[in-house]
Amino acid sequence: MNIWILFVFFRTAQTNSTCVTSIDMELFLHYSLIPSFFIIMVLSFLQRRVHHKQIDDKSYLLGNRFGIVMPLDFIGTFNNRWSYGVAFGAAANKVMFLFSEGYQPLQVPQWAQAIVLLIGGIEVGLSHFPFFACLSSDFRLISSILGFMYSLIWFVITTLHIVQCPHGQLIGEYETVIFYWPSLLCLAFLLGRFVYMFVKALKIHLGLEVQNEERSFLEVHQAEHVKQLMRKPPEQEEEKSWFQRRIYEWDPYFQFPSRMIGATVLAFICLYLFIIIEFCIYTYIVQELDVFEGGLESYIASVNDTGVLTPAILQIKELITVAKGVWMLTIFSASLTCISYLFHILACYRKHIKRLWLGEKSFIPSKFHNPSSSNSVVAIARYSGWQIAYILWGYLIIHVVQCLFGVMIMYGLVLPVIHNQGLEMLKGLGIGILTISIVVGLMILQLKIAARFFLQPKIKPGDRQKPLALNNRKAFHNFNYFLFFYNVLLGLGACLFRLFVSCILGTWLIARIDRTIMQNGYEAADMGFQAWIGMLFVDHYHTNPVLVGFCHILLTCNNERKLQKSIPYWHLNHSPGPRVSIKSRTRWFLLYTLLKNPRLTLLRKPKSALGIRVATQTNSVDVLQN
Fold first, then answer.
1. Which of 228, 311, 529, 551 could form a disulfide with 516 if both were Cys (CB 3.0 to 4.6 A apart)?
2. Where is the signal peptide (predicted)?
């Protein structure tokens, strides 16, 4: 099913609108590439390349300039996370057009649609590239000016588009405002952010404020996380509240990367736009159904309620009325479900990444314990976009399923009461409940008989259950024989129940990319879950606080060693004091580590030459502990 079919009514209604505007947003998207390329070239000219090229020797003007401009670090960026998220939110309207496959800059055959969508995605990315590049550029003064001007252009054009045609034919008043206010709010936030960057950079340039030192790749929260691991756990843990135990517990030593924040913000805005578009389509369909109902009422009036088709027509009208009411009601339940999924996915990301930091992989299927490196790298690029698509498709599927259940409840419970058939409904409901109760009771009875007569007594009085050892074998075989034929029929119901539960859970969890809906052994067919696992492993390998902290220590020691070699009289710059040999300091660190972690003495590699030393250090640890 092509989702563009769902948007065709909305796009047609917009095209047939009586309001005439002088601004075409799709045409402006094409023209916005001109200032976008200019900003990218300016930032690339300011960015110096690390490696010297042969072309730099031929042209003196290059001077290692025109480096690669990076929009943002999708893995290790923890600063300006909400600014990047808002920048993603500014592109929400264009992302929705890409999702609907309605934005096609070129007209090509059907077999080349994938290539055209790729070109459209690249064009949207280039048009919004300056937002991210100006936020992440090291040249704050120039990038803030360029980012402010570019954001101002988009803000002014979007505002003019809203002012010229604020109303529509489907929702009515302020229809355009309803669609564009999230992007407009994001653009206003970016304007304020670039003004703040400009003021701060100007103060540093004029010497009114001291520029911060070069930021290390070891973030503060990562260093605090490592320090927390080094501390002894408290003897008595603080009592957690119900919210912390059941819903979410805030961790001051953990931060979500910018990729997760940006994907979540964009998913929220896209879900809002999707619901609005769905409501517009619903409004259009309701208008057509009202016309259809008017024709049915005219037919009934023409035959004076005596026609052969009158009962069927009344049932059709009742079905339309029920469907319209249930669809409106389930919009809220489906929306709340998908919104809760977005928060729950963030909580699952923190839980899963922390487990990987501990070396625990039990929550991952065994075949994904060592994923392909190339697949994991691609998963970083796929995850954010796929998460948004899963949420949108999941909302639509969940909404349809909830609507079907709502219609079933209306026809099974509510309408019989309205039509004065409540007793018949209660009678049928009672018979159904009684039948299910008898079936479940017989299944429980089998368990009780098996536990009472066909298992040997407990070996120890404190055992939780009896051992799996048969008793009364002849009675047991007769029990199996006579229940064999009954269990054939019972198995049919169990099979249908299995199918029903699988369908319900599959549709209910379709928007959850962090949980596979495939059976055990078939998880590889779930490409969304594969992207989730690959993304987790990339973050685990590149943002593990212990690993990053270890690399930070190595780099710091290496820089200090280079500094010592570069300064001939480096030792004269330090205050005099007792000099400690490296060997003694290493032994002291070893003793301190063993004192804090006594179990490590059992894990040390045994060597004959170190036997006396290990014994001495172990005795020292025991003495200090006593």
1. 529
2. 1-15
599 within domain boundaries:
no
Long-range contact set of residues 11-17: C-beta below 8 Å, sequence gap at least 24: 11/102, 13/168, 13/169, 13/170, 13/280, 13/284, 14/168, 16/169, 17/165, 17/168, 17/169
pTM for this prediction: 0.81
Between vectors from CA 253 to CA 249 and to CA 258, what angle results, nearest 5°?
90
Pick from 294, 226, 222, 262: which is nearest to 83 by CA?
Answer: 262
Together in a domain, 163 and 296: no
Length of the chain: 626
What residue type is 508 in one-letter code? W
Match 């909404």 to its residue by tokens.
Answer: 399
Read off the pLDDT of residues 444-489 as tens digits, 9 standing for 90 and up: 998 888 888 888 888 888 888 888 888 888 888 888 888 888 888 8
Cα of 591 vs its chain's centroid, Å: 45
Q: Is residue 517 part of a domain?
A: yes
Domain edge (last residue) among 542, 572, 604: 542
Range of the domain at 315: 262-542
Q: Is 552 within a domain? A: no
Residue 547 within any structural domain of the chain: no
What is the DSSP secondary-structure string of 56-109? Answer: HHH-TTTTT--PPPPS--TTT--SSHHHHHHHHHHTHHHHHHHHTT---SS---
pLDDT single digits (tens) 355-391? 999 888 888 888 888 888 888 888 888 888 889 989 9
Contact 452, 441 (CB under 8 A): no
| Three-class DSSP category at 174 | coil
User: Could you identify the residue written with the tokens 């101002």?
Assistant: 152
Q: Which amino acid is at 445?
A: L
Q: Please say whether the beta carbons of 388 and 89 come within 8 A.
A: no
Contact between 292 and 263 (Cβ < 8 Å): no
Give, in order, the Cα–Cα distances in Å from 395 to each of 97, 245, 392: 17, 28, 5
Domain count, the chain: 2
In angstroms, rounded to a whole number, what is the distance separating the alpha carbons of residues 127 and 115?
18
pLDDT, mean over the chain: 81
User: 455 forms bridges with which residues in the sheet?
Assistant: 470
Are 145 and 44 contained in the same domain? yes
- Say if CB 154 and CB 60 are below 8 A apart: no
